[in-house]
Design a protein that fits this description.
Elements: H1 23-40, H2 51-61, H3 63-70
């Protein structure tokens, strides 16, 4: 069984956006959705639904971002 970073996808009401992806990234999303469906027993359907949870996970796990967010805002040039 693969150890994927992404877990079950919440069934939230989608918000429509327009986004261009490189074809190779789209193929990776399709493959990831297929593996997630196989491993987790949850069909994703549209692989583009993976983008938001992946971005949320990325932002939540970015230690540099978290540290910068906690630091008081500094003026440019300080």
């Amino acid at each position: 069984m693969a150890k994927l970073k992404l877990g079950p996808i919440a069934d939230d009401k989608p918000v429509e956006i327009t986004l261009e992806l490189p074809a190779s990234l789209h193929r990776d999303l399709v493959a990831y959705a297929a593996i997630l469906g196989r491993e987790g027993g949850q069909g994703v359907g549209d692989p583009l639904r993976l983008i938001v949870p992946m971005l949320e996970r990325f932002v939540a796990s970015d230690r540099g971002f978290a540290k910068a967010r906690r630091e008081p805002h500094r003026a440019v040039g300080d």
